[in-house]
Design goal:
- There is one protein chain.
- This protein is mainly α.
- It is globular.
- The chain has 13 helices and ten strands.
- Strand 8 (about 365) and strand 9 (about 375) form a beta hairpin.
- Bound molecules: 2-acetamido-2-deoxy-beta-D-glucopyranose (NAG) (7 copies) and copper (II) ion (CU).
- The site of one 2-acetamido-2-deoxy-beta-D-glucopyranose has 4 residues, from helix 9.
- Keywords: Metal-binding, Oxidoreductase, Signal.
- This is Di-copper centre-containing protein.
- Pfam families: Tyrosinase.
- GO terms for molecular function: metal ion binding; oxidoreductase activity.
Amino acid sequence: MANLVRALVVSATVAGIWAGPVTKPFTLNRSDGFPYPLDEVDLLEEKALANFQAYLAKKNTTSHGCTLENAARRMEWHDLSIAQREEYIRAVLCLQSKPPKADTKKYPGVLNRYDDFVLTHETQASHLHSTPHLFPAHRVYIWAYERALREECGYTGYQPASDSAINKLKTAADPINSPIFNGNMSSMGGNGLPANYPGVMTMSFKPPFDKIPAAGGGGCVVDGPFQNMTVSLGPIGKVLTDIPPNPRADGFASNPRCLRRDVNKYASAVTYANYTYALIKNSPDVMKFQTDMLGIPEKNDWGVHMAGHYTIGGDPGGDFYSSPGDPLFWFHHGMIDRIWWIWQMLDPENRMNVLPGNPPADDFVDLNWSAERGLTYDMNDSIGGYDGKFCYIYV
Ligand SMILES: *[C@@H]1O[C@H](CO)[C@@H](O)[C@H](O)[C@H]1NC(C)=O
Ligand SMILES: *[C@@H]1O[C@H](CO)[C@@H](O)[C@H](O)[C@H]1NC(C)=O
Ligand SMILES: *[C@@H]1O[C@H](CO)[C@@H](O)[C@H](O)[C@H]1NC(C)=O
Ligand SMILES: *[C@@H]1O[C@H](CO)[C@@H](O)[C@H](O)[C@H]1NC(C)=O
Ligand SMILES: *[C@@H]1O[C@H](CO)[C@@H](O)[C@H](O)[C@H]1NC(C)=O
Ligand SMILES: *[C@@H]1O[C@H](CO)[C@@H](O)[C@H](O)[C@H]1NC(C)=O
Ligand SMILES: *[C@@H]1O[C@H](CO)[C@@H](O)[C@H](O)[C@H]1NC(C)=O
Ligand SMILES: [Cu+2]
């Protein structure tokens, strides 16, 4: 189990075995071969867990029986063994080989079960991204994808929700050579081939920040496990000029093409852990947290969210609507969920029950065929929220 690093050790209980009631402090054991030094966000995560434990102890209750001990542990890609990474990849390829659930007469671009999730992001785009839904709806969305990998494709792990994908220093500084992007068969695939990629215009930023420059890729991904993947839905947004438009104006027809990426060090450079750390520490309220995450033009800061998306870029990763069509999307939005989670857990008393824009109590999230409808406020809690369906922590 040498690679199951950062495993949780609960008092004398061996990691992986569900413990009884917590009597001793809940600690993370990261000493077992963890390949990278902890960054400042990892340290906040440890503090967040400790604070949350104290909060639970004070409340002396569990939500739907979910506890820190029995919660699923979403780990970083780097912390998974090669075999675990390969198991994850197999499950994604499996979803891409299963029949879809969406009505393919209505949505002929949906070729497989994976595409169901891409379609959800397209049809529910405004619902998923409006205030207050961005964080809670993506929390459900990632969870539903993780559930599909597990229940429909036999995956035994959890979604690797990686700061390592994006903001771990070594990855962010040199993404192309990181274990997630290096293009070997246990990575999530490499860069796209060199292409005439224009870079990405960033709205409301002043030069030179009005553009994320191209970083040498932008063409088809020809290495790693997704080299033969067919991207079908979209594009809907106008991102790349040389992608054939979708035959249907709504983007729901089949438009088969290769997966394209521009693994982008200019974007990833503003996702170093210190940016994420600053975001969490400098956001006393949830609205500021959301706003700053989405970019701060006056500080020339593209924001952790946009920079993460354009570290992947390309097609469909660069299209707002179709971006989940790149399997790396789930790592990036997993990271966003992790950062929200850390922000919440640092002060659970005051932060677990707030959402940007103070929606009414009966506000809901509806992801249609991807997940059951749920109350938006019930998604503030990863330990028992969503009517008890959520039960996970980040380690
Ligand atoms: C953490 O893991 C290391 C290596 O497996 C082990 O030697 C050490 O005892 C563990 N620490 C705790 C507190 O369990
Ligand atoms: C917590 O609740 C349980 C039963 O619900 C009770 O037995 C226990 O004494 C309580 N502990 C504290 C510290 O209040
Ligand atoms: C893939 O990359 C990882 C991380 O760099 C490395 O540990 C592994 O040995 C590589 N696998 C192959 C088949 O090259
Ligand atoms: C992709 O397709 C080519 C040609 O059929 C095949 O040689 C290759 O093994 C496939 N790669 C993967 C990862 O399935
Ligand atoms: C993060 O660190 C880099 C240097 O490593 C520095 O240029 C940048 O200003 C820092 N950003 C923040 C938000 O602290
Ligand atoms: C989530 O927010 C709602 C509404 O404010 C609140 O009733 C609930 O207790 C919160 N959940 C947690 C775990 O704080
Ligand atoms: C969910 O999908 C059904 C079937 O395609 C559609 O009729 C309905 O409008 C969708 N609901 C939402 C909220 O998008
Ligand atoms: Cu989204």
